[in-house]
Amino acid sequence: MAKSIIITGGAGFIGSHVVRLFVNKYPDYHIINVDKLTYAGNLVNLSDIEGKSNYTFVREDICNYEAIVALMEKYEVDGIIHLAAESHVDRSIRDPFTFARTNVMGTLSLLQAAKTVWDKSPSKYEGKRFYHISTDEVYGALELSNPAGDKDGRGPYGDSFFREETKYNPHSPYSASKASSDHFVRAFHDTYGLPTIVTNCSNNYGPYQFPEKLIPLFINNIRNRKPLPVYGKGENVRDWLYVVDHARAIDVIFHKGTIAETYNIGGFNEWKNIDIIKVVINTVDRLLGRPEGADMDLITHVTDRAGHDLRYAIDSSKLKRELGWEPSLQFEEGIEKTVRWYLDNQEWMDNITSGDYEKYYDEMYSNR
Ligand code: NAD
Ligand code: TYD
User: Fold this and answer.
1) Is-above-0.90 flag for pTM?
2) CA of 314 to the centre of ligand 2 (A)
3) From the CB of 282, is ligand 2 less than 6 Å away?
4) Ligand 1 atom 32 nearest Cα
5) Listing from the earlier edge strand, what are the strands of the sheet with 196-201?
6) Are 355 and 306 in contact (CB under 8 A)?
7) pLDDT per position in the chain (368 positions), as tens?
8) Alpha carbon distance 314, 161 (integer Å)
């Protein structure tokens, strides 16, 4: 089993939780966090583990094929868990080229590097793993066949789910770039036999998420009594999973998943945007000692996102059936923990919203 593992995008939101889990849980592994530190990368996310002897950080662009080959050779890497990506749909609408570069060409660069290095190894692909982390957004959008919702049902807003065999039908430049990267990963298995696994996960929430995404952005705005920009009517449905549960799933799948398989990861936890926003407002108000719901008037309906997918809902029953994974947290508990974390870590938030964290890295790495 792989023990010298590159985790790409480890300074980002989900990546930092995966790095933390692996570094703490597997002291005999060497975890090499390869991250370019774009606007979304923040090493403060990992300050609790940065001094551990089984952890190494390398600032590198995954598109730099020669550098990735050199790193794989230097550290005798036998596993890759690939999370580095441009991840925000709204940015992809403004700047699709950056998404194609990192998400498509960056993934191809990693695949080719893994193939080149492992082809030369005496054991070739034996004991090696290339695990690609993707999103449910590649499947497109589902119908909202039950707009009123049925909180007793597994799919309260419709009977349809994304399953592993659902046809890809991406709509945004972000999801198109992730779909393309997924195809390249599978092609490297089917053509060269590279030992790959792909997982597609629903929307994550939790600590360390960059505050351009719905939940951290809104928590910060409510705290500062700033408007909450709800796209369109707020009727779009997302399926929310606590980020630590995603990291737990990645651990299980990396170790026990079957090569060439795809696993969907989700929490059977669908929410309309407007409803989740109300829960967040009530929770922030309560934890700040304001009357619950006092900040509802911050809700501001704005122009809808172009091509806004109506509903995502993932069927993760294969993962439960085959590998025994289930979410550990109920949503109420997860959202409470999340709001509390952002309110308790105002310095982390202020460091990002002021842009100070980026200046620090530019100085720190300017001579390299
Ligand atoms: P994020 O934007 O918070 O972090 C991305 C990380 O990748 C950052 O640290 C950034 O510096 C790094 N990075 C970007 N371009 C790079 C490059 N060229 N070379 C090296 N590093 C680079 O993203 P996230 O929300 O943590 O998502 C991580 C992965 O999980 C992505 O592949 C995303 O598609 C997938 N995913 C995210 C969600 C979600 O809800 N956030 C859900 C399902 C899947
Ligand atoms: P987001 O967190 O960007 O994740 P994704 O687009 O990957 O699902 O958005 C979650 C939902 O919230 C999505 O339907 C868009 C909506 N949204 C808003 O209404 N306002 C906002 O300011 C943001 C960032 C998102």
Assistant:
1) yes
2) 17
3) no
4) 83
5) 55-59, 30-35, 4-8, 79-82, 129-135, 196-201, 262-265
6) no
7) 669 999 999 999 999 999 999 999 999 999 999 999 999 999 999 999 999 999 999 999 999 999 999 999 999 999 999 999 999 999 999 999 999 999 999 999 999 999 999 999 999 999 999 999 999 999 999 998 888 887 666 788 988 999 999 999 999 999 999 999 999 999 999 999 999 999 999 999 999 999 999 999 999 999 999 999 999 999 999 999 999 999 999 999 999 999 999 999 999 999 999 999 999 999 999 999 999 999 999 999 999 999 999 999 999 999 999 999 999 999 999 999 999 999 999 999 999 998 877 765 666 555 43
8) 5
Alpha carbon of 316 to those of 154, 238, 250, 263, 269: distances in Å?
12, 15, 13, 7, 11
Residue with tokens 């999370």: 83
**Integer Cα distance of 86 and 7 in angstroms:** 15
Q: How far is the CA of 12 from the centre of ligand 1 (A)?
A: 6
The structure tokens listed for 172 are 């945004």
Closest ligand 2 atom number to CA of residue 90? 3
Q: State which of 14, 19, 33 you would mutate to test the pocket of ligand 1, scoring each by most atoms of that ligand within 8 A of its C-beta.
A: 14
Residue 63: phi, psi to the nearest 5?
-75, -15
Ligand nearest to the CA of 250: 1
Q: Quick one: which atom of ligand 2 is closest to the CA of 228? A: 22
- Helix, strand, coil distribution of the chain in percent, nearest 5: 45, 15, 40
Structural contact between residues 342 and 219, judged by C-beta atoms closer than 8 angstroms: yes
